[in-house]
Amino acid sequence: MPENAEAPLACHGRLKPGLRGLFAGLSGKLLLLTVVFVMLAEVLIFVPSISTMRLRWLQDRLNTAAAAGIVIDGLQVSDLPRGLQDDTLVATGTRAIVLRKDGTSRLLAASDMPDAVDGQYNLAETTSWGSICAALDTLVFGGNRIIRVYGPIGDSAMTIELVMSDASLRRAMLTYSGNMLAVSVLISLITATLIFFAINRLLIRPIRGLTLSMQDFSQAPEDPARIMAAGPGGDELALAGQHLAAMQAHLQRTLKQQKNLADLGLAVSKINHDMRNILASAQLMSDRLVDVDDPMVKRFAPKLLRTIDRAVGYTSEVLAYGQASEAEPRRKPVPLAALVQEARGFRAIEADAGIEFAEAISADPMDDADGERVFRFGHNLCRNAHPASLAPRATGSSELRRITVSAQRFGSVVSIDIDDTGPGMPAKARENLFSAFKGSARSGGTGLGLVIARELVLAHGGTIALAEKPGPGTLFRIEIPDRPVSLQDYRARA
Fold first, then answer.
1. What is the pLDDT of residue 389?
2. Pairing relationship of beta strands 332-335 and 159-165 according to DSSP bridges
3. How far apart are the first and last CA of the chain?
4. Cys-Cys with 467: which of 226, 337, 409, 475 at CB 3.0–4.6 Å?
5. Cα dihedral 207, 209, 212, 218 sign
6. pLDDT in tens, 210-242
7. Which residues contact residue 353 at a Cβ distance below 8 angstroms, ignoring those fewer than 6 apart?
8. 188 C-beta neighbours (distance < 10 Å), count
């Protein structure tokens, strides 16, 4: 055996060591996806939260400036000293404070007034979407802008206005974002870890068990110890394990049956080989019966010779089938009426046997088929119909026992019906109609007759089916098409 002959089995045996990395398995992928999804959820939470943080920061500045502005306004001084203005501006983090009251504006404190401002924000009329856009704009592009912020003081009619740099605001927002990121990562890791252990316990372990069971079973499916021990439970994975165990047991029984059939086929081929030799000897001896001057012998000798010839032909075909070299049908025009009569004589179906054998062959259609194979499947079906017609009837039943063989041609197709008046096909036999060793309708049968008949019909490109009928009994319908004629043959004939 080549050195690499075991390689395919190794690939289907156990998991490769290289695949045992954390993120190579399903559990690692679930862990990574959980972290990604939690971080995505945190991003969706972060956007409105950073907007809210910005509004609160600006509102705090307005409240602080408003408190200072009200105090300054109460002093009733025209201008504050320069030092007091600077202290007020530093305390509020602004460059200018303006108080609007009774339709007038008063500059309370100012320092380094800019020529223009980069943005204006009215905290009393802000919208959620506008606040989010402003927050993202400040977070990404801010830091060196001059902004004007204004809003009402409490429930009064006074308005406080600030001119300030957004550098402090952006630093506060970056600090808040870093804290949010740290908390989000911590939450995602904790959540992912909990989900990892839960998923690993509830899903990954059972799935890994199913996978390993399938791998072990594939290495030695004939070993009963390789069948998965399904555990109790009613969830999807438990049901999958139970179905897998049942499938493995069924497959093991099927493999065992196939092995037995293979062994049986080999034994039959050996027996058939010796039987062919015996039949060949019987054929030589039966040839001498033709020379015997006895009316009874002359009557039965031709049938005996044909029977032995057929038996020799069957044994040869069995040996050829065992070598997977089934010969193609030797098709030629065949008179169906003669074959039906021969099958009747072969089964010894006579009137005194209590069964009427009826023929309904329209104008004796010539079937383009292999005569020997047509005889074989016809004989098999008649052999099934004969004992079925002899089955016991209900007391007092006077129904006629009959086997009817009918045939007619429809264009290039010949349809053959074999009908009997027996009790009909049992339900179990119907379910396994063309299955070997399963489709027998009587005790002790093997079901091979229908299997053989089906193979012979299919070899002709035809069909065979159990047809429905209104009365009791069984009706099989066979349809055999003629061979298609090639253009070259048609021109040769023309």
1. 57
2. unpaired
3. 60
4. 475
5. negative
6. 888 888 888 888 888 888 777 777 777 778 888
7. none
8. 19
What are 70-116's pLDDT values in tens digits?
877 776 666 677 777 778 788 888 888 888 887 788 888 888 777 78
203 Cβ contact partners less than 8 Å away, ≥ 6 residues apart:
26, 237
Please report where in the chains the tokens 């506060």 appear, as a residue.
172
User: Is 167:93 a contact under the CB 8 Å cutoff?
Assistant: no
Q: Which stretches within 323-370 are classed as H helix?
A: 336-347
By three-state DSSP, how is residue 13 classified? coil
| β 413-420/366-369 pair status | unpaired
Per-domain residue ranges for the chain?
Answer: 26-189, 234-327, 332-391+401-493
Helix (H) or strand (E) holding 403, with range, is: strand 402-410
CB-based contact 382:357 (threshold 8 Å): no
Please name the amino acid found at residue 319.
L
Tell the residue number behind the tokens 């924000």, with chain if given: 121
Q: At a CB cut-off of 8 Å and minimum separation 6, what does 149 contact?
A: 58, 61, 62, 120, 121, 123, 161, 162, 164
- Sign of the alpha-carbon torsion through 185, 190, 191, 192: positive
Q: Which helix (H) or strand (E) holds 257?
A: helix 236-287
Beta-carbon contacts of residue 25 (< 8 Å; ≥ 6 apart): 19, 204
- DSSP assignment of 283-331 equals HHHHHGGGG---HHHHHHHHHHHHHHHHHHHHHHHHHHHHTT-PPPP--
- Which residue has tokens 């005569």? 371
Report which of 350, 341, 432, 435 is spatially closest to residue 386, judged by C-alpha positions.
350
- To which H or E segment does residue 381 belong? helix 371-389
Beta 119-122 vs 96-101: how paired, if at all? unpaired
Residue 113: burial class (beta carbons within 10 Å; 0-12, 13-18, 19+): exposed
For 278-309, how does the pLDDT look when each residue is reduced to its tens digit (9 = 90+)? 666 566 566 666 666 677 766 666 777 677 77
Residue pLDDT, tens place only, 468-489: 888 788 888 999 998 887 778 7
Give SS3 for 395.
coil
Q: Give me the residues paired with residue 62 across strands.
A: none
Q: What is the chain's alpha carbon radius of gyration, rounded to the nearest angstrom?
A: 49
Q: Please give the class, per CATH, of domain 332-391+401-493.
A: alpha beta
